[in-house]
Design brief:
It is built from 12 helices and 2 strands, in the order H-H-H-H-H-H-H-H-E-H-E-H-H-H. Helix 2 runs parallel beside helix 4, helix 5 packs across helix 11 and helix 7 crosses helix 8. Helix content is about 60%, strand content about 0%. Strands 1-2 form a two-stranded parallel ribbon. The chain is mainly alpha-helical and about 290 residues long. The N and C termini lie far apart (about 55 Å). Keywords: Membrane, Transmembrane, Transmembrane helix.
Length: about 290
């Protein structure tokens, strides 16, 4: 079997297992399929890079070669979906935005050191995150800081994509929620490290917007970190004020996705996180 090629389906396994995600074959499949077909491909690639086999969840059948091939495919597709200039119809632009959100979400979750981020947020809301839990979480991020910052980069790009485009898709609310929580958690961890003198404050700021995926400043930030992350309309994500602003903005965006009822529940969760900020001890609430 060629490296990066997914196995032929066993009896009872879905037809999408026939997808080949290396070389020219997946590119051909992508160019010849419609919007729903592209979404199926993206969901499958996301499952591969994040090790999720929905047919046999107890024993994922993806090899490291398949994982790398899927990751490269997603990164390439992200570049291609970034071309949203003139000559595209409104329906094409909407479809491209949805595809981009799905790709960014897969890359965010792949790079984020905390895999179960929604349960962690719920534990914070209900005061169940003790010092030991925070220490384990922070150590996990510190041991893979460059990877974590890459996840934050993709999460911020997803956030801005949803803010700037009407992504009317049933998966948008949950993908947006996870992206917001990644940025929120990174900001919280920065706060705790800063007060523990585990962070250098003199490192230059970085701007994370829709044009920041592959800039020299972004690459420097991923390698070295920063004490100031700017998003459109948010002066510094790493300050308490900026974190609160980001949560408030995310609630507004989430409520705009009212076509899907689950968005109201997610908006309430984000509002609860925002309220938790008002209850933080003074030493952690100080910017």
């Amino acid at each position: 079997m060629v490296a990066g090629m997914l196995p032929m389906p066993r009896p009872g396994r879905p037809l999408e297992k026939r997808i080949v995600i290396n070389g020219r074959t997946w590119r051909y499949a992508w160019s010849k399929t419609g919007t729903l077909g592209k979404q199926t491909i993206l969901q499958y690639l996301a499952n591969v890079v994040n090790g999720k086999d929905h047919v046999s969840p107890a024993s994922p059948s993806f090899s490291p070669e398949q994982n790398r091939a899927a990751l490269e495919a997603l990164e390439t597709l992200l570049e291609e979906t970034g071309d949203q200039g003139y000559g595209h119809s409104w329906s094409d632009l909407k479809a491209s935005a949805i595809h981009r959100v799905m790709i960014l979400s897969a890359l965010t979750l792949y790079h984020t050191p905390t895999s179960h981020i929604v349960p962690l947020a719920i534990k914070v809301i209900y005061g169940k995150m003790n010092d030991d839990s925070w220490t384990l979480t922070i150590d996990r991020w510190r041991s893979s800081s460059c990877q974590g910052r890459t996840g934050v980069l993709y999460a911020s790009n997803l956030f801005e994509t949803v803010r700037s485009a009407r992504c009317i898709h049933f998966m948008t609310p949950v993908l947006l929620l996870k992206a917001v929580l990644v940025m929120w958690l990174y900001s919280i961890i920065h706060d705790r490290l800063r007060h523990g003198r585990g962070y250098q404050l003199e490192i230059p700021s970085v701007v994370l917007d829709l044009k920041s995926l592959d800039t020299p400043a972004t690459k420097q930030w991923i390698a070295n970190g920063s004490s100031c992350i700017k998003l459109p309309g948010i002066s510094n994500l790493l300050s308490r004020q900026g974190r609160c602003k980001m949560l408030e903005e995310s609630v507004v965006v989430m409520r705009s996705l009212r076509a899907w009822g689950i968005s109201s529940m997610y908006a309430q969760l984000l509002e609860r996180l925002r309220l938790v900020e008002d209850m933080q001890p003074a030493e952690l609430a100080t910017i």
